[in-house]
Structures are given as C-alpha cells and as structure tokens.
Amino acid sequence: MSVLVEVLSEGQHCMPCVYMEKLVFEALSSVPGIDIKVIYTKDPSGAKRFRELSKAMKKVAPVPSIFINGKLVYDSTPSAEELRAIVREYLKEEIE
C-alpha cells in the first residue's frame, strides 16, 4: 500500500503553487511508500479531480493545497519537517 499525496495547483503562473509543488517533491520524493501527484486544475483531468475533491469536502477545494489519501491536510505551504511528520503518521496507519 502507498500513501497518495496530491498537490492542487493552477500551474507555473501561480508562485504559491510552484513553491508548494517544489516543497512536496523535495520533502517526500525519497520517502518509500509515497505516491506524489500534481493536479493541475486547468487541465481537463485535473479539473475533474479538483471537482471530485471539492465534492467530497462539500465546498470548493483551496488552491494551492495538499491532500493526503483524498483528505485536505494543508491549504498553505507547510515546512518540510511538518509535512514529513504528517506523512509518517499516514504511513503508520497503512501498516496497522
């Protein structure tokens, strides 16, 4: 099993989005059991996933944001340490 980390992003013109994407990849790319996906809300497939996440939340999902296993975890960029800590908790849940 793996933990799915999704970053909602508008794309390269959105500097907070770019910064969040970069942080997620730098903090988590070497962690085993993590699947990282960037969801570009302006692409058709990204727009579909954005709608799915928004529907599940019963409100519009914030952009940029980080979802872990379909749950909104951050709507602003966390520190790398904070992100790794929460991901470790999700990995523990997967094992148990």
Question: Could you please describe the fold and organization of this structure?
Answer:
- This protein is an alpha+beta fold and 96 residues long.
- The chain has one domain (3-95): Glutaredoxin, CATH 3.40.30.10.
- Helices cover 46% and strands 23% of the residues.
- The chain contains 3 helices and 4 strands; from the N terminus they run E-H-E-H-E-E-H.
- The protein has a 4-stranded mixed β-sheet, sandwiched between helices.
- The chain is globular, with a radius of gyration of 13 Å.
Short description:
With 96 residues, this protein is α+β, with helices and mostly antiparallel strands. Helices cover 46% and strands 23% of the residues. It has a single domain, classed as Glutaredoxin (3-Layer(aba) Sandwich), CATH 3.40.30.10.
Our count of helices gives: 3
Query: Per DSSP, what share of the residues sits in E-state strands of 2 or more residues?
Result: 15-25%
Biggest sheet overview = 4 strands, mixed
Report the average pLDDT across residues.
95
The CATH homologous superfamily corresponds to Glutaredoxin
H and E order: EHEHEEH
Specify the structural class.
Answer: alpha+beta
Gap between N and C termini: 11 Å
| Shape designation | globular
Instruction: Report Rg.
Output: 13 Å
Strand order of the largest sheet: 2-1-3-4
Question: What is the strand and helix layout of this fold?
Answer:
Layout: E1 3-9, H1 15-28, E2 34-40, H2 44-57, E3 65-68, E4 71-74, H3 80-95
Parallel strand pairs: 1-2
Antiparallel strand pairs: 1-3, 3-4
Helix pairs in contact: 1-3
